[in-house]
């Protein structure tokens, strides 16, 4: 309690006009000549009292309307009582706590780390936190707005009036805070900010808010995220092995709002998904799910890739604890959860981060650095320590608070290069005159270092489409520090090939083999993602040439090629059963097509490919090592046949993969093999159970000692049209 004189009229007028940047210097308790005096603002009150142990001490109206002031003797906690008149003109009495009698919540260490931009658990300092402070329950609000002249919490608890709860500035940190007693879980709020020019900004959602209204409404909501009872210790303790580059990783990519719809079209809830989605993924043999961004976002059509509530699981499917239920259920089923994470840009919606405190705070002021023309979004200013801290802490938040097993980082290429999708003259070079974005590179390295350091066993994945070196190399070796990288080149080349009529494929054979030139330069994931089945690209089935049977056979062969190729696997929902139509984010995927045996056969093929993959170490142990792969015949352009050997550790049986991308069958196709003896036909995509013609090798082939293709043994096999065959060496 400071010693001051009676509040001046000029100070009260500054508060009333919303221009006072130190409301605690005027409001609340202050010592005047050794006696505590209290000043409060309540424009709806006719009379006010300070109350100590049931004794009322009158507060007199000040010269500026709405303010009351007077002595409240003693040093015990006081409350405020008041009287107002409603529409019935009857006096109404109320009693409340005075927010301005409470001291700060943030401590000196918080203040130091905030000022330095190094607060790893930033979400515990900023945002809205339900707590008990100085013996009173309420919510602590804190927000970073360094250039603001005034910041207020407004909400349904104060009639959205920015003059009622202006906040306390915390030194040079740029942070404002206030503890509001009596406010709890479920309260709606925003921040009202007066910019450096004195203008009131559009009301802002909380950048660190844990909850939000249902879009298109956009207020933040106080959510108490403490106290969840996790039961996934067994998974957390073993996930490092399950997510290593020598593990089988097969990812089912999911846009939760359109995976299943319920009750005449509403999206599935987190609680429903905890049962239905997890059961389905487990049945299909996928090891992981990857969820398109779950951070709160205003526009459904962005699929979550234009988030505003970076710390809030979208309310579209339920509450934060219910999202935890989904993750917990996945872990209990032995399934990892990867979240799409979007640190590359953010939308310019008025309630978001753009010009947050009346200045370009989170973004660059210069649109040549701070605006994405492709997406009409703003680009983070990675060189500002507090912004880099915000993003790094957000990554840690999802790993810590929601037990995410990994983050797939969206649009990394757009972050790495200052000239990304920009014409000459429309970008700003780095300090050395080059195109690399040093600040973004530094932030990504910091994020990866801290995520792996704080949460061993997690995985980070880069969606990166360029030849930037060392994306999945350790930071201390000059890399970016990601665990894995999407292989966009493989995806583009192979999809171009598979679209072509088989008669022309011999001229484009290299598109299927070129990926092996660089397959071991990074820890790759082979992605058939949502981006390949939207915006006029059609479904995977729709890309295939030929009649209906040929379309299905082509796709079965392509999936066989993918599952046999080095690299972890990712498949977007609906493509596992060959959905015929392009993905529509406003409707559920076409489950009804499973009534057709061809679609049901494709679904069974993916399940069996996953099973074979996870049970056969040669198909995954050395995904990122050159000695895990060897061609049998990579150059059979005339027949459009590709054959190779996959190897695991020395004690694991080898696997031969043979893919025929023409409609011609080869009854006596000879391939070289490393050993003589029995090779089991472990999977044949032409099997009748998958919708194929049921042509094959009666479950096995016998390799004799006739050399072929540079191998000491060989075998003749029946190679069906448009098919992929997996042969596994049997033990002698």
Question: What is the compact description of this entry?
Answer:
With 732 residues, the chain is an alpha+beta fold. Helices cover 22% and strands 26% of the residues.
Report Rg.
Answer: 31 Å
- Give the CA-based shape: elongated
Percent of residues in helices comes to 10-25%
Based on the structure, what is the oligomeric state of the protein chains?
Answer: single chain
**Annotation field: number of helices:** 16
Low-pLDDT parts are none
Secondary-structure-based class equals alpha+beta
The beta-strand count equals 38
Placed side by side, the strands forming the largest sheet appear as 1-2-3-6-5-4-7-8
> Strand percentage, roughly?
25-35%
Provide mean pLDDT, rounded. 96
N/C terminus separation: 86 Å
For the sheet with most strands, the description reads: 8 strands, mixed
EC number: 2.4.1.18
Family: Belongs to the glycosyl hydrolase 13 family. GlgB subfamily.
Protein name: 1,4-alpha-glucan branching enzyme GlgB
Keywords: Carbohydrate metabolism, Glycogen biosynthesis, Glycogen metabolism, Glycosyltransferase, Transferase
Features:
single chain, 732 residues, alpha+beta, eight-stranded mixed β-sheet, eight-stranded parallel β-barrel, 16 helices, 38 strands, elongated
Overview of this structure, please?
Monomer. It is an enzyme of class 2 (transferase). The active site is at 410 (nucleophile), 463 (proton donor). It catalyses: Transfers a segment of a (1->4)-alpha-D-glucan chain to a primary hydroxy group in a similar glucan chain. This is 1,4-alpha-glucan branching enzyme GlgB. The chain is built from 16 helices and 38 strands. The N and C termini lie far apart (86 Å). The mean pLDDT is 96. The strands form nine sheets. Strands 1-2-3-6-5-4-7-8 form an eight-stranded mixed beta sheet, with no helix packed on it. Strands 16-19-22-26-27-28-29-30 form an eight-stranded parallel β-barrel, surrounded by four helices. Helix 15 (548-564) runs parallel beside helix 16. The longest helix has 19 residues, at 597-615. The chain is elongated, with a radius of gyration of 31 Å. It has 732 residues and is an alpha+beta fold. 22% of the residues lie in helices and 26% in strands.
């Amino acid at each position: 309690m400071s010693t001051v004189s009676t509040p001046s009229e000029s100070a009260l007028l500054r508060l009333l006009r919303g221009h006072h940047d130190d409301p605690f210097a005027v409001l609340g308790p202050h010592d005047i000549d050794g006696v505590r005096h209290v000043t409060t603002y309540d424009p709806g009150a006719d009379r006010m009292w300070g109350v100590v142990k049931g004794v009322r001490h009158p507060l007199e109206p000040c010269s500026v309307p709405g303010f009351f002031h007077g002595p409240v003797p003693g040093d015990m906690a006081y409350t405020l009582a008041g009287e107002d008149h409603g529409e019935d003109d009857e006096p109404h009495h109320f009693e409340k706590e005075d927010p301005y009698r409470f001291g700060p919540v943030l401590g000196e260490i918080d203040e130091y780390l905030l000022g330095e931009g190094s607060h790893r658990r930033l979400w515990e300092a900023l945002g809205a936190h339900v707590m008990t402070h100085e013996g009173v329950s309420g919510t602590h609000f804190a927000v970073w707005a360094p250039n603001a002249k005034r910041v207020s919490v407004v909400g349904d608890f104060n009639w959205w009036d920015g003059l009622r709860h202006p906040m306390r500035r915390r030194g040079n940190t740029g942070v404002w805070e206030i503890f509001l007693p009596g406010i709890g879980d479920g309260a709606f709020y925003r921040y009202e900010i007066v910019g450096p020019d004195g203008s009131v900004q559009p009301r802002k959602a909380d950048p660190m808010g844990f909850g939000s209204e249902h879009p298109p409404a956009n207020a933040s909501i106080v959510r108490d995220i403490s106290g969840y009872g996790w039961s996934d210790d067994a998974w957390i303790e073993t996930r490092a092995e399950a997510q290593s580059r020598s593990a089988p990783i097969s990812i089912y990519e999911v846009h939760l709002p359109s995976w299943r719809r319920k009750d005449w079209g509403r999206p599935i809830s987190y609680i429903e998904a905890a049962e239905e989605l997890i059961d389905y993924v487990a049945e299909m043999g996928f090891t992981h799910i990857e969820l398109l961004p779950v951070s709160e976002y205003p526009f459904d059509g962005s699929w979550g890739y234009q988030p505003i509530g970076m710390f809030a699981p979208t309310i579209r499917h339920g509450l934060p604890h219910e999202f935890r239920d989904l993750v917990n259920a996945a872990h209990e089923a032995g399934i990892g959860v990867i979240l799409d994470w979007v640190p590359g840009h953010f939308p310019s919606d008025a309630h978001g981060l753009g010009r947050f405190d009346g200045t370009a705070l989170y973004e660059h002021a210069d649109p040549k650095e701070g605006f994405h023309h492709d997406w009409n979004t703003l680009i983070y200013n990675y060189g500002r320590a507090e912004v880099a801290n915000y993003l790094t802490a957000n990554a840690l938040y999802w790993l810590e608070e929601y037990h995410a097993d990994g983050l797939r980082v969206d649009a990394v290429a757009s972050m790495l290069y200052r000239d990304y999708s920009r014409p000459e003259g429309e970008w700003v070079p780095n300090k050395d005159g080059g195109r690399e974005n040093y600040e973004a590179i530094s932030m990504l390295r910091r994020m990866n270092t801290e995520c792996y350091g704080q949460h061993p066993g997690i995985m980070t994945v880069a969606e990166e489409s360029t030849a930037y070196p060392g994306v999945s190399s350790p930071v201390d070796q000059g890399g970016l520090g990601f665990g894995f990288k999407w292989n966009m080149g493989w995806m583009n080349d192979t999809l171009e090939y598979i679209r072509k009529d088989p008669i022309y494929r011999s001229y484009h054979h290299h598109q299927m083999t070129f990926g092996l030139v660089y397959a071991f330069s990074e820890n790759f994931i082979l992605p058939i993602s949502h981006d390949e089945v939207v915006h006029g690209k059609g479904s995977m089935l729709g890309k295939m040439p030929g009649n209906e049977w040929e379309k299905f056979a082509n796709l079965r062969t392509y999936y066989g090629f993918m599952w046999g190729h080095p690299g972890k696997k990712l498949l977007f929902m609906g493509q596992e059963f060959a959905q015929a139509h392009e993905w529509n984010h406003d409707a559920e995927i076409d489950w009804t097509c499973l009534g057709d045996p061809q679609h049901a056969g494709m679904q069974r093929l993916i399940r069996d490919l996953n099973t074979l993959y996870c049970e056969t170490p040669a198909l995954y142990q050395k995904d990122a090592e050159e000695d895990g792969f060897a061609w049998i015949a990579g150059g059979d352009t005339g027949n459009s046949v590709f054959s190779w050997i996959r190897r695991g550790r020395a004690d694991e049986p080898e696997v031969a993969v043979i893919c025929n991308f023409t409609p011609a069958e080869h009854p006596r196709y000879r391939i070289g093999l490393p050993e003589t003896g029995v090779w089991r036909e472990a999977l044949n995509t032409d099997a009748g159970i998958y919708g194929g013609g049921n042509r094959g090798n009666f479950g096995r082939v016998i390799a004799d000692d006739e050399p072929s293709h540079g191998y000491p043994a060989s075998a003749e096999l029946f190679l069906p049209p448009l098919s992929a065959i997996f042969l596994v060496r049997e033990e002698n």
